[in-house]
Design brief:
The chain is an alpha+beta fold and 471 residues long. The chain is built from 12 helices and 16 strands. The chain is globular.
Length: 471
């Protein structure tokens, strides 16, 4: 497609993709990583349900206006340089579909949500000539006053926090809809052509190397002695299928664990990192493991860039840690073992923050010319990491009131496709303020045995329970 057309009905060329955005495009096109997804539940939503599906389209129209990434595609010029381009409008009727929970296999609601996530995480995007996101709006049966929205997006347009930003925008829109619905037709009073929603006029944000121009990749730490477990060797024999497992931690348990974390001068992320490490080392015969924990780079940017948690974009890195079985004293009480390790993890997190973005692990990818060739060259080699962990933290929203409307967002499930060239398994975590914590495990079929992953999930569940019930 010609990129330089002047017609307002033609796509508009935007900036070149940054190095990490190009990397994510290569992984997707190879089938190594499809997408990221967040399913959120919206409750006390009678007025929105009464104007279904118009209220859903209206909310996504609001999000499209707020986030330019929702109307962008990726294209290639004559020199094979990748660019973002902006479409003049978006067809929401093609991007948003509607189901009921009964349409999804599984006996319990959580099982149905995991089944939906698994199905979506195993579907990439056919091409980048249309926006690389989609959504599923889910109604429940009976007189329930809640519904769910699954938002699924290509990693090139956003990191995990980008999904939180979209759901924040949808919540804002639903609260506006409550005050803007014709009581006779149950349709929003302002008309909108859902097949031609105008794209945002806001500029795209810059890439991470532009936002952190002085950053470089740190020297990797020396490996510990002993055999490392990282699942089966990296392979790309198709089909590459994602499998998911799930743990729900009750709101009461979350509060108890947070109290324990404050008491021991640590954080939830640091503790969960230690919990997964212990559960894994209890399950395998190898002496050591290595983990990569995602870290948002947004906090390191110049405030003038206005890149915060309310916007979409790809600005993440990782920090890595190795663990050895000897650190966990197999015969000791589990919480007693976990707190010292958790405090070490906290110290590492604090060091990353104090560094201010000067040393960023992901910057090691900047010098690679051909990402597809680089990742394919590692087929058959051992994986670098045993597991990866991404904790999006707590989703916070302004409380419902007479001005903002009564609808609330009270539950979230965060997942993503397996990384065919990444860690043996990944953990995705998110909590809604005052609500449950959802922990989702994802792995590539055949890379981790069912016995191993089942034992790890059971071990994490048991350790979380022990910490929550400890004094």
């Amino acid at each position: 497609m010609h990129l330089n057309g002047v017609s307002p009905d033609m796509p508009k060329r935007e900036r070149k993709l940054g190095f990490y955005e190009r990397f994510r495009v290569s992984l997707h096109d190879l089938g190594y990583h499809n997408n990221v997804s967040i399913i959120a539940r919206y409750s006390n939503a009678t007025k929105v349900l009464d104007s279904w599906p118009h209220s859903i389209f209206r909310a996504f129209g609001h999000a499209v206006q707020k986030h330019p990434e929702l109307a962008t595609t990726v294209t290639e010029d004559e020199d094979q340089t990748l660019y973002f381009q902006r479409l003049p409008n978006v067809d929401l009727e093609q991007l948003v579909t509607f189901q009921t929970l009964q349409d999804i296999e599984g006996q319990e609601v959580d099982a149905k949500l995991v089944a939906l996530s698994t199905s979506e995480n195993n579907q990439g995007f056919k091409n980048t000539s249309t926006p690389t996101w989609r959504a599923v709006a889910l109604r429940e049966s009976g007189n329930c006053d809640s519904f769910r929205i699954a938002f699924i997006w290509h990693h090139v347009i956003g990191d995990g926090r980008s999904g939180l930003a979209i759901h924040q925008s949808l919540l804002e829109a639903f609260r506006l809809v409550e005050h803007d619905v014709d009581c006779k037709s149950n349709r929003p009073t302002t008309s909108l052509d859902y097949a031609r929603v105008p794209a945002s006029t806001k500029p795209l944000f810059i890439s991470m190397e532009q936002a952190l121009p002085g950053s470089s990749a740190p020297v990797p730490p020396s490996a510990r002695q002993g055999e490392k477990w990282a699942g089966k060797a990296y392979n790309d024999r198709g089909p590459i299928l994602t499998e998911l497992g799930h743990i729900r931690v009750s709101a009461n348990s979350v509060q108890s664990i947070l109290t324990q974390c404050r008491k021991h001068d640590t954080t939830m992320t640091a503790l969960l990192q230690a919990i997964v490490a212990k559960a894994l080392l209890d399950q395998v015969s190898a002496d050591r493991i290595r983990t990569a924990v995602a870290v948002s780079l947004r906090r390191f940017f110049d405030p003038k860039l206005e890149i915060d948690d309310s916007v979409m974009g790809l600005w993440i890195s990782t920090y890595t840690t190795e663990y050895h079985k000897s650190q966990f004293h197999q015969n000791a009480d589990a919480p007693t073992v976990l707190w010292p390790i958790s405090k070490q993890n906290t110290a590492q997190i604090n060091a990353v923050v104090a560094d201010g973005g000067k040393n960023v692990e992901i910057m090691g990818l900047m010098g690679i010319d051909d990402y597809s060739a680089a990742v394919k060259a590692k087929v058959g080699q051992p994986r670098d990491n045993s597991f990866g962990l991404t904790n999006l933290g707590v989703f916070k929203a302004a409380a419902a009131d007479d001005v903002r409307g009564g609808i609330v967002l009270d539950d979230m499930l965060f997942s993503q496709s397996c990384h065919a060239n990444g860690a043996a398994f990944q953990i995705c975590i998110v909590t809604v303020q005052g609500g449950d914590m959802n922990i989702v495990f994802n792995w590539q079929e055949g890379i981790v045995s069912k016995g191993e992953i089942g034992g790890i999930i059971d071990g994490v569940k048991d350790l979380v329970r022990q910490v929550a019930s400890s004094e």
